[in-house]
Design a protein that fits this description.
The structure holds three protein chains of three kinds. By secondary structure, chain A is an alpha+beta fold. Chain A is built from three helices and five strands. In chain A, the strands form two sheets. Chain A has a three-stranded antiparallel β-sheet, covered by helices on one side. The longest helix of chain A is centred in the first third of the chain and has 10 residues, at 2-11. Chain A is elongated, with a radius of gyration of 20 Å. The termini of chain A are far apart. The model of chain A has no long low-confidence stretch (mean pLDDT 87). In chain B, helix 7 runs antiparallel to helix 8, helix 8 (258-286) runs antiparallel to helix 14 (413-437) and helix 8 (258-286) packs antiparallel against helix 16. In chain B, the strands form five sheets. Chain B has a five-stranded mixed β-sheet with strand order 1-3-6-5-4, with helices on one face. Chain B is an alpha+beta fold. Chain B has helices spanning 13-26, 50-61, 107-110, 115-125, 213-216, 222-229, 237-252, 258-286, 290-311, 331-353, 356-362, 370-375, 380-384, 413-437, 484-496, 504-512, 516-520; strands at residues 32-35, 40-41, 44-48, 66-76, 79-88, 91-98, 103-104, 128-129, 173-177, 189-195, 198-205, 320-321, 324-325, 442-443, 451-459, 462-470, 476-482. Chain B is globular, with a radius of gyration of 22 Å. Chain B folds into two domains: 13-129, 2-Layer Sandwich (Beta Polymerase, domain 2); 213-520, Orthogonal Bundle (Cytochrome-c3 Hydrogenase, chain B), CATH 1.10.645.10. Chain C is built from five helices and five strands, in the order αβαββαβαβα. Chain C has a five-stranded parallel β-sheet with strand order 2-1-3-4-5, with helices on both faces. Chain C is globular. Classes of the chains: A alpha+beta, B alpha+beta, C alpha/beta. At the A-C interface, strand 1 of A face strand 5 and helix 5 of C.
Amino acid sequence: MPFWFARGLRRGVVTTRYPARSDGSAAFLPTPPAFRPRQLTGQTADRLVAVCPSMALRRQDDVLIFDVGACTACGRCAEAAPDAITPSGEFELGATARSALVKRIPIRGETR
Amino acid sequence: MTPAHFPVPPSLPQAAATLNGVVGPLADLGGLVISDSGATRGAVTVRMLDETLEAATRALAGTAGVRLADMFAADDGPVTTLRLVWAHDRGYLVTETETEGGQYPALSEIVPAAFVEECEIYEQFGIGPAAGEPLNRVMLPPHAGQDFPRLGHRPPQPLDGAHARHTVEGQAFEFPFGPVRQVGVESLYYGLVTSGEEVVDLYLFTWHKHRGVEWRLRGKTPREAAFFAERVEGLSAVAVGWAFAAAVEAALGIAPPPAAARTRAVALELERLYNHAAAMAALCQATGLSVGQAAAEIALERLLRVNAAAFGHRYLFGVVEPGGVSRAPDADVLRRELPGAYDELRRAAGALLSTNSFLDRLEACGILTAEQAHRLGLVGPVARATGLPMDARRAGPYDEVPATVVTADGGDVLARFNVMIGEAAESVRLISAFVDAGTGDGRTPLPVTGGMGLGWAESPRGEALAWVALDDDGRITRARIRPGSVRNWRGFDDACRSQNVFTDIPIIEASFWLTVAGMAR
Amino acid sequence: MNAGSDGTRTGIGAGSAGQDPAGQGTAEVARQLRDTIAAQFGRSLHIRTLDTGSCAVCEQEIRLLSAPYYDLHRLGFFFTPAPRHADLLLVTGPMVRAFDGAARKTYEAMPGPKVVVATGACALGGVYPADPFVHGNVGEVLPVDVWIPGCPPSPLALLQGLGVAVGRLAEKTPGLTFIAGQDIPGGAG
C-alpha cells in the first residue's frame, strides 16, 4: 500500500469545486435548446415537432410546448431550424415539480 | 439446383474469399441459391431450402475460421424466414431459409451458440427447433400473455420451465439474487446454485429490462430509428449506431463519405478507450482496491471530458447517423487533450500490474478456454483473451488504417485485463492516424427505396451486428440489433462455474464488462 | 400515487405528509417537520440507486459521483446497497412494466422519511412512449419528489439535483423560460 499512498500524494487533489464555483468542463456539456420566437413560424414549429425523437415538443395553437424533462439535447431541432434555436447552456435542471420543466414558447409572437 | 459458377458482385471484394472458402463446399448439398439482389447486402447471401439447412449448418460449423455470429427470424407475410449470420475472417455469410410447419432443425445441437437465439425466436415467432433441450424464457416477462406484442404473427404456446437447465450434483443451495443489486449497477437477476461458497451454477434472467426495441423500430425511418439504436446499449452507442447505420447503407446500396467514415472510427476508438478505463475501475472496485479504482476513475473522467470537448457529448451520442456522421471531431482538442488522458490510464494500468495483491485475485479467475469461446460464439476481449484472433474492425475506414488485433493466452480475468490494456494503446494510435488522415462531417443522402442489409462494428465488448429490411417507402419492416453483450452473457455462467467463489463473480463480471441493456434490449 | 404534476409538491417525504386542507395548523407543523428533515438530510444522506430499464449510461454517470472529480462524500452523501438504510432513491430508466414489482418493493423497503429522485430523459417521460413494454415515466409507479433531466444527466447535473432534493440548493428551472434573449443569452428574442 505505501506504493499507492505515495502515488496518490504525488497525484494531488482533482475534486472540482462545484457547486461553489462553476467547473470549466461544463462548457462542453450538451444542453437543451432555447428558442427565438421571432424566427419560430407555425411551419417551423410543425417541422420541429416532427423531428424531435423524444416527444419533447408539441404544438398547441400558437404555442410550442417544450418539455425540458423529455429533452435529450440530441440537437436535431437545432439542425432543422438553426435560426430559431440556440443552445441554452443550462444543465442544472433539477426540479421539484414536473410542471416546472414544461415551457411555453410563443410562435411568431411577442415574448412575454 | 446447384449453380454452375458463382457470380461475384463487384461491390463485395470479401465475397470472393467467402464464396470460395466457405460456400463452395456447400454447393454439393443442393437446394442452394446464391443471391445478392433482393437479399441481404453487405454479406454474401445464400438462400436454401428447409431440407438443406441442417446439413449446411453442420458443414459451416465444422469449417475452420467460421463461427455463428447471429440467428434471427422475420415474418414475410405468412412465412417465417430464418436467417443465420456466419462470420468468416474475411466477411459475413447470411443463410436464409423459409421455415415450414412451424419448425426448423435442432440447430443448437450442432452449434451451441444458437441456443439463446432459438429461445428468443420461439418467444417472438412461435417456431421452434424440431428436437433438443427445453427452451427458456429470455426476453418476455412471465406475465406476457398471448396478446403481448411480438415480432411475429404466431404467438407460442406458453413456455414451461422458467430457468436454464443445470445439473446439481451432491448437496447444493439455490438462491435468487437481484434484480435490484449493488448500488450503481444495472438490474439483473441471477439464480445462484452453490455448495458452500463455490459457484456450482449461475443462470440469468434479463426480462426486467426488456424495452422491446426491435418491436419499436418497425415503421420508423432509418434516422428516427438511429436515435433508439444508439440507446439500446448506451455504453456502445457508437458501435451499435454504426452497425445499424451500416446495415441501412448496405440495404440502400450507399456508403458514407470517406472523411465521415474516419470520424466514425475516431468515435469508436474513443468509446473503446473510456469503456476499458471504466472496466479497469470496476475491476479495482470488485477486488477492493479503492485507490486503484480512484486512479482509473480519474482516467475515465478525463477521457469522457475529451469526448465532450471533441464531439459534444460525454458518451458520443448523436455522432453516427445513417449515411455518415452528424459532426466532425475537434481535431485540435483531440491532439491536445487525448495524450494526457491516455497517460493517466496507462500509468494506472502500470501501477495495477505492479500490485501483486491485485494480480493474485485476477489470475486463474473466471477461466474460459478457446474451445468454449468458439463453441458459445463469444466475441470481443473475452474471446481474444482465450487466444482467438477475431475482430470486426474490417473494411470501411479500417482498410486505410488497419487495426492490430490484441490477443492473450489463458482466458482468465488477467488475460482479459491485458487485452484491454493493449487495445487501449492501439486505440490511441488509431485515433491519431485517422485524425491525421482527415476527419469530417457529412452524410450521403438516403434514397427512398427498399432493401435488406447487414452492418457490423467492433464495440468495446465485442462485435455488434445489425440487420435491416426496408420497404419501398424506406421504412423499417424488420430491424435486428445484436450488441456484443448478447453473445458474451452466454459465456458468463461458464466463466463463473467451478473453482470460483461468490466474491469472484463481481471480478468476472467486471472483466467481461457487458451491459444488461444490450442483452435485454 | 401522484407525482407532482400539479406543482404543489415540495422536496421531502411527499409520500405521507403533504396536503391537509382541513387543518392549517397541521399543514404548518408538516412544513416545519419537512424543513427539519431537510436540514438533517442536507448533512448526511444515504442513496440507493434503482435501474428500471436504462441503457446503462445513466448508471455510469451515477457511479462517477463517488469518483475523485465529483466525490459526493464531501457533501455528506453516501451510497448504500440496503434500502433499509437509504433516505433517497435515485431512479433511472423508463420503468419497464416487468420491473414494477421490484421497484415497489425497493421503495416500500425504505423507511420514511424518504425522497424519490427520477433522473434521465427516459425516467421523465422522454425517449420511450408508454406502451405494453414500458410505462415511460417513473412517476407512474413511484411518487417522485425531484426530476433531473439529461441524456445522460452529467455528474454535475446530478449533484445539483441532489442538492435541490435536500434543500441545499435552490431550483433554477421555474425561473428559466428557454426563450433566447430573456434569461438565456445569445440571440434576438
